[in-house]
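Narrative progress, year one. The postdoctoral researcher (J.K.) led the effort to move from monomer predictions toward full complexes, under supervision of the PI. The following entry was the first complex the group processed end to end, covering 488 residues in total.
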Amino acid sequence: MEKLGKQTIKFNNPPTITATASIVGPKESQGPLAKYFDQTLDDEFWGEKTWEKAESKIIKETVNTVVTKSGISSNEIDCLFAGDLLNQCISSSFGLREVGVPFFGVFGACSTFVESMSLGAIAIEGFAENVVCATSSHFCSAEKQFRFPLELGNQRPQTSQWTVTGAGAVVLSKNGSGPFITHITPGKIVDMGIKDANNMGAAMAPAFVDTLITHFLDTGRNPSYYDAIISGDLGHVGKEIAIDLAKTQGYNIKSNYNDCGVLIFDKNSQDTHSGGSGCACCGTVFSGYLFKQLQEKKYKKILLIATGALTNSTTSQQGESIPGIAHAISIEL
Amino acid sequence: MTNPLETKQTYQNYVDQKSPNSPILKNCFWAFIIGGIICTIGQIILNICKERGLDTQTSGTIVSIILIGLAAFLTGLNLFNKLGKIAGAGSLIPITGFANSIVSPAMEYKSEGYVMGVGGKMFTVAGPVLVFGISASILVGIIYLIFNTQAITLV
């Protein structure tokens, strides 16, 4: 493990992504990526009494699935990194309380998936043989915590995004034959003063561009080095802004850049406005769709940059702006 | 192109220009149609009541009761939010919107129990409307009393 430039860490013995798993809710099951997920749910409750319990069950079952798929017994998992959007990350801690593996709770808003994977990769380079990194979000529990009751008859602005219901999880191992996590670029908090909680894409895009360009400067790479550059949940609005911002700083990412929030829903038929968001947006799209592309060697080098809006409902009501963050990992075969 | 990230103000201006607006004409159209239908239903109920021999004030109360009941029922069936998505202000401004704003948090927070959940959170959306509505009516009442001395003699 060595540091490159300002913020990037290069792994000398890159950890392998041994297995991934994803479970998604009903709306995601009707989206264009449905066939890539391990399990699709018919209803938001999944037999539970509350949405919070349902979200805990989703992350629990996703972690069980990924451990089974990896073929590693749960005694051989050294630690677990997980987080979500609900207050004090209860989906992860409640869902994973019976796993019996050392647990690190991680909060990076919607950037949690890549943040967990970054920390997991560092743990592998340090002491661990195998780690699990997981994240979840749930449309209903997120709406309840951050916005209005679901049954309220209000209209959503065009810039608003749809929280993905689901969970994504990966097993990282010291020994393996790839895909490898070769670099991580943890991001700085960037706040360009956007206050509109219904326009998270615009609030997070500057953080995305900051991490992206820092990654290129630190590694000496350029956008064409990667088969795909994928952001976590900038959505349609944020994606356009990100392309523009990168261009003004001399980086053309238009041809190989996309966003998980754009990929997971069909904007026209699913009425999701600016696209998907939430921890599970990046988590499920990577664990389902992108990992499959790596396995089939359609993509050989991916730069995954999960974006997060570090805000809560109190700060929005107090008129504070929304600090953004973006963490990058470079995944190569 | 200049760099939008130069200052917070330039970025805000850039974002405003980049963000799609709500379809105002379409929203106004549907608000007018559905809001109009709701009010027409109210008028029909009023006419029926009056025809059956009730006075205007009692008939008005019955209209409110029926529309509130209907909106609460549709909220419970998870249909009112679908109507509200199309109608916007058309279903929000009539008394139906008020009923929906009380029933929806009551349903949402039922999982936290009847006292702290349903009871405590029922007015989270409608609370401001009640507080400022009642405050405004008190203010208007005081002004009316001051400027209309006749009212005092009437009282």
